[in-house]
Amino acid sequence: MQLEEVQILALCDFDINKVPKFLHRFLIFDDKILKERWDICNNCEFLNKKLKCEQCGCFMRLKTRMGKMSCPIGKWGKV
């Protein structure tokens, strides 16, 4: 995924109705997987108050929605 695509997703604030259709192929829509990933991150010692991972520097509300991404310390993987 190119940086421009990631910036578009970040600007959309995760309202799926605002995300351009061409980016949907990169996103996870399975609520179970999203909840599992977010629950892991939300309880992780490396998640800061800005919801950013202190290990990889990613904003986790975005990263947990992206199927090809994984946790930098192995807590969850690609789908």
Structural class: mainly alpha
Largest sheet geometry: none
**What count of domains describes the coordinates?**
1
Radius of gyration: 12 Å
* Helix count from the secondary structure assignment: 3
Task: Provide a concise account of the structure shown.
This protein is mostly helical and 79 residues long. Helices cover 32% and strands 0% of the residues. It contains three helices and no strands.
Molecular structure report:
The protein is mainly α. It has one domain. It is 32% helix and 0% strand. The protein has three helices and no strands. It has helices at 3-11, 31-42, 60-63. The two termini are 15 Å apart.
Topology:
Layout: H1 3-11, H2 31-42, H3 60-63
Features:
79 residues, globular
